[in-house]
TrEMBL record, chain A:
The keyword ATP-binding applies. This is ATP-dependent Lhr-like helicase. It comes from Ancylobacter polymorphus. It is an enzyme of class 3 (hydrolase). Residues 32-217 form the Helicase ATP-binding domain.
Length: 835, 240
């Protein structure tokens, strides 16, 4: 940019920068110049680059130069809207903005609005808005769904979207993009500023910032100096690297020594359970009594806030945390990030690394700690990706229809809408640029009468068409329902974990919350780790799990088979490339290299593009192991479908197990023999046609699909949300979404909510799109070896058998097993009696 | 081998498991109905017809296919068992207005069910009064031989009570998987039927309200795809 700083920055600002011995950074000035030209702009900058200030400088400069409000005819409306994915971040940014504003003596009113803001202040903000309002996507949706939205936002000059990379591509992002489209309709002159970390495809985010008119219109792009390259290494543990598992126990002492040697360390793991285990293990060896804390999303909120506060005051030496701290407030003192377990994607890893060292000119320091042999490969691949600055490519997806349904109802709450105009407005939002008119009309129909082909509900419509053709809500209760339902975060039902006191089974304190489905797999007497303790599960009472402390050392910890996040496609390709190129193995630890050499000798290495399939006997069973490297979710779906097909082929599979890299199917029939005799064709087994009828049949009963549908139904407002504390009453009136799913699937399989659920299944818990891409890739490229015994590469996934729950298995067979158990029990009793 | 919870699939039962109640031999049809061969009587409970539209009235437009799904299932059980008497054990409609909201196809299905046999509507708490315009007879309860058929089980009832009302379901955990199914519940003195309605939710048989009905030991007979599975109450787990 040519403009000189003096030209762009008014006197008080220059003085302020000079007073602290700073100079405005190039990207900050560039953003000012773009703002002067009235252009919407995406700023890509690393953490610590003064990104937030850059986003606000244009607004502060404008507000400093405006005439005193007293002189104007009416009080000015809102000038700048800042939207952040985290309410804590909005509050923190407001605080950080107050300071320069005060120090420069600017008469600027800065306020936040979150779910915690008192109702009285929220009322007042509508009537008498501040100059700058900092808030979240959900609050924007609520503000826009009211009749005062127009006057409130009419004067809006700028919208700042923070951490845009974290919002785009999610349902929350969809909701925000729709709100943005409405804001632009109300205030067409407002500029949009997007703030983002480095992403693989900045153009998508640039399209977010300006209305889409069918030509992929884009905002301007400013890329800040990336700063010093991170100092990144993999812990080369002296100890034996485990074949499987995710605890990284073998590296515990080394992690502890790293913590000792640094000021403040963030230790990232992938799941809450891993966090619990690692935290506990660290305290076992914490001879120096270092202040090490635990932070994850299931802990009690007050406890999380205490940890964050202690962190801010520099009182902690380390925090073991999950993605709960991926985003958030900057802590200057963090000088080391340790990532335990596989990073799963290079973008998440970069985000985490950025949490260390917020001074731009010094490198962030991070150490990767693989927990097993495959993770060594994955860490190595991730390390090379980060050094090359290579990001995961974003998953291509369109805006979700359930979110659209929620938004359309909100727009009807704001006032009557014309379908044509609203459709055009919605299609101007990047995620919905390709929305078909038919889908839009279905969504409107859904909001009116449920959108069923059997038009039974005309009398009970929620929104109605008026004589002039515009749509409006049928009654005020509909608007009330909408307000209660706003948002796209559908928490899985959480149960409080309460410690039963010694005296009574009821009195103790609440330790935090766990997901209902986690508890459902436990029987009384089972032990698990939570809040840093080994606990025994006693009973469930209403929405509480009652637990007791126990002396058990080895808890039965049903884990999530390694992590919530599946291995990214990008990283998977890099792992495959590394495996198939022995000349690059020099960078790997010796024992891992030996392992791969042995695999080459005994079997084969998975090729870059091929699918290696091994069959071999072991014990009294026969096994088939495939190595697609497509992540656990896709492998689980694949395992379900392959098991079905093998069963149909009369090969009697007993079960399967999947991790991020491979899957194993085991059974009582010799699959090597069946292949040799031509009774089993692997090409046919892995044919993409499994995504037809087999998938449909499985979806009918899949618990994951039902959970996916439930989320869509809640977001779209078909099912009322369950609110904590109100569950007992609402249970009688809420419907089981499983029943709704069964009925709808059978009677109207093309319904808009089922389409929404299928779209989610493609990229969500079932990862069907990835599976489908993989099946297309390996067509005709299956590399099968029949082996006399288990191969070295198969060991990790084989070790998962029996350790993890059987995710598959037909439920009828399991019911029969439960019945048999009872019979055995009864027969044993008879034996004792007669003996 | 495949499990289906969808109602339409629950009707491929062959003969079903037999239980004895007050000397009468009854067959547990895997579709969730009770078959009394010697009387050629088919008993079903808690159809909750028009529950979907009852929600729609309150502004929650659930899919309107529940009555059709429930009646289709019932029609298939009837076609298979060919009963002389068909008894609906109460809560046949979700609310008083339900009959009026029935679609024409569903009305025709109901008329067909009543043709050539006795159809008895027992009163339930959702449908306490006889509903005008419905084919069949209405009754508060029905005594046949040693058995008494009523909607809600009565405390201190004589042996041989058959009831619905509670929508029993049982939950078992097998190899780390939690399975929850509709079920019959019986201690040999009384028997509670599962709800047949497509939108009828369930109450866990370990819940105090259900457990209190049975003196001590009782069994759940879980409704499966093609048969029922008998599991003792203590082997079933509570929900929450």
């Amino acid at each position: 940019m040519d403009a000189a700083p003096d030209d762009l920055l008014p006197e008080p600002f220059r003085r302020w920068f000079a007073g602290r011995g700073w100079a405005p950074r190039a990207h900050q000035l560039e953003l000012l110049a773009q703002a002067r030209e009235g252009r919407s702009t995406l700023l890509i900058a690393p953490t610590g680059a003064g990104k937030t200030l850059a986003g606000f400088l244009p607004s502060l400069v404008e507000l400093a130069g405006r005439p005193t409000p007293r002189n104007s005819a009416r009080p000015p409306g809102l000038h700048t809207l800042y939207i952040s994915p985290l309410k804590a971040l909005a509050v923190d940014v407001a605080r950080n903005l107050e300071r320069p504003a005060q120090e420069m003596g600017l008469a600027v009113r800065i306020e936040t609005r979150t779910g915690d803001t008192p109702a009285s202040r929220r009322q007042r903000q509508r009537r008498d808005p501040p100059d700058i309002l900092l808030t979240t996507p959900e609050q924007i949706a609520l503000l826009l769904a009211s009749a005062d939205a127009e006057p409130l936002f009419a004067d809006l000059k700028r919208i700042v979207l923070d951490e845009l990379h974290a919002l785009a591509g999610s349902k929350r992002g969809d909701l925000l993009s729709l709100g943005l489209a409405r804001l632009r309709a109300i205030a067409p002159m407002a500029q949009t500023v997007g703030l983002s970390a480095t992403v693989a495809d900045p153009d998508t985010l640039r399209r977010w910032l300006v209305p889409q008119r069918g030509n992929g219109e884009m905002g301007e792009l400013v890329v800040a100096d990336p700063g010093a390259a991170p100092d990144l290494s993999m812990l080369d543990s002296a100890a034996h690297v485990p074949w499987a598992g995710h605890t990284a126990r073998h590296s515990l002492k080394e992690i502890y020594r790293l913590i000792e040697r640094h000021t403040t360390t963030l230790v990232f793991v992938n799941t809450r359970m891993q966090a619990e285990l690692l935290f506990q293990e660290l305290w076992h060896i914490n001879d120096a009594n270092l202040p090490i804390a635990l932070h994850h999303g299931s802990l009690d909120v007050s406890q999380r806030r205490r940890v964050e506060a202690a962190m801010g005051e520099g009182k902690l030496k380390a925090v073991v945390c999950t993605s709960s701290l991926d985003l958030g407030i900057d802590w200057g003192a963090v000088d080391l990030v340790v990532n335990v377990g596989a990073p799963k994607g290079s973008s998440r890893l970069m985000q985490r690394i950025g949490r260390a060292n917020h001074r731009l000119d010094e490198p962030s320091r991070a150490v990767l700690v693989p927990a097993n042999r495959f993770e060594v490969l994955e860490c190595r691949a991730a390390l090379e990706a980060v050094r090359a600055g290579a990001q995961d490519s974003a998953v291509v997806r369109s805006g979700a229809l359930d979110v659209l349904a929620q938004h359309v109802l909100g727009m009807a709450c704001a006032g009557p809408f014309e379908a044509d105009a609203l459709f055009a407005e919605i299609a101007s939002a990047e995620p919905y640029a390709d929305l078909s008119r038919a889908d839009f009309d279905d969504v409107v129909g859904f909001n009116a009468t449920g959108g069923y082909a059997l038009r039974a509900y005309e009398r009970f419509a929620r929104i109605r068409q008026r004589k002039d053709g515009s749509w409006r809500v049928a009654n005020p209760q509909v608007a009330q329902q909408y307000r209660l339902n706003v948002g796209t975060i559908v928490e899985s039902t959480m149960l409080k974990v309460r410690l039963a006191s010694a005296k009574s089974r009821y009195g103790g304190r609440v330790l935090g919350e766990v997901e209902e489905y986690f508890v459902e797999t436990m029987s009384p007497g089972d032990t698990f780790v939570f809040a840093g303790e080994v606990l025994e599960y006693l009973t469930i009472h209403e929405n509480e799990v009652r637990v007791a402390r126990t002396s058990a050392k080895e808890p039965r910890v049903p884990s999530y088979a390694g992590g919530k996040f599946p291995l990214s496609t990008f990283l998977a390709a890099r792992v495959r490339a590394l495996l198939s190129a022995p000349e690059r193995w020099r960078s790997l630890p010796g024992q891992v290299r030996d392992w791969l050499e042995l695999q080459k000798l005994r079997s084969r290495l998975p090729g870059r593009e091929d699918l290696l399939v091994e069959t071999f006997p072991r014990g009294d069973r026969y096994h088939l192991v495939a190595y697609p490297f497509e992540g656990r979710l896709a492998h689980q779906t694949l395992g379900m479908l392959l098991t079905r097909r093998l069963d149909r082929a009369g090969l009697h599979p007993l079960g399967f197990m999947a991790n991020d890299y491979a899957l194993v199917i085991y059974g009582v029939s010799d699959m090597s023999l069946a292949t040799a005799q031509g009774r089993l064709s692997l090409d046919a087994l892995f044919d993409a046609d499994m995504l037809g009828d087999d998938l449909e049949e499985w979806l009918a009963e899949s618990a994951l699909m039902k959970r996916t549908f439930r989320q869509c139904a809640v977001i779209a407002g078909l099912i009322e949300r369950r609110f904590p504390g109100k569950e007992k009453n609402s249970r009688q009136v809420t419907m089981s979404t499983d029943l709704v799913y069964d009925v709808l699937r059978r009677h109207e399989p093309g319904h808009v909510l089922l389409r929404a659920a299928r779209a989610d299944a493609a990229t969500g818990l079932l990862d069907i799109r990835r599976l489908s891409d993989m099946l297309a890739r390996i067509r005709g490229r299956i590399d099968h070896v029949a082996l006399p015994r288990v191969s070295p590469l198969a060991v990790p996934v084989m070790l998962e058998i029996g350790r993890e729950m059987v995710a598959g298995g037909a439920s009828e067979a399991l019911l029969a097993e439960a019945e048999d158990e009872l019979i055995r029990e009864a027969m044993d009793g008879a034996g004792e009696g007669s003996g | 081998m495949q499990a289906r919870e969808a109602v339409e699939e629950r009707d491929v039962a062959q003969d079903g498991a037999a239980v004895t109640l007050a000397g009468a031999t009854l067959v547990l049809d895997a579709a969730g109905a009770l078959w009394w061969p010697s009387e050629r009587m088919l008993i079903v409970a808690d159809l909750h017809l028009e529950k979907g539209s009852a929600f729609a009235v309150r502004g929650v437009p659930l899919p309107p296919y529940d009555s059709r799904a429930t009646l289709d299932l019932l029609a298939r059980i009837v076609a298979r068992r060919r009963p002389r008497v068909l008894v609906a054990l109460g809560d046949s409609f979700h609310d008083r207005g339900g009959v009026d909201r029935l679609g024409p196809d569903e009305r025709a299905s109901l008329a067909a069910l009543a043709r050539g046999r006795d159809l008895v509507w027992i009163a339930g708490n959702h449908d306490p009064a006889p509903m005008p315009g419905l084919a069949g007879d209405s009754a508060d309860e029905l005594r046949v031989g040693p058995l008494t058929l009523r909607h809600e089980p009565e405390a201190g009832a004589d042996e041989g009570e058959i009831a619905g009302h509670f929508h029993p379901v049982a939950r078992v955990v097998v190899r780390g998987r939690s399975l929850r199914r509709r079920c019959f519940a019986t201690d040999g003195r009384r028997l509670v039927l599962p709800a047949l309605g497509a939108y009828a939710g369930g109450l866990n048989i370990r819940d105090a309200a259900l457990a209190g009905l049975f003196g001590g030991a009782y069994d759940a007979h879980l409704v499966g795809a093609a048969r029922t599975y008998r599991i003792a109450h203590h082997a079933c787990l509570p929900d929450r």
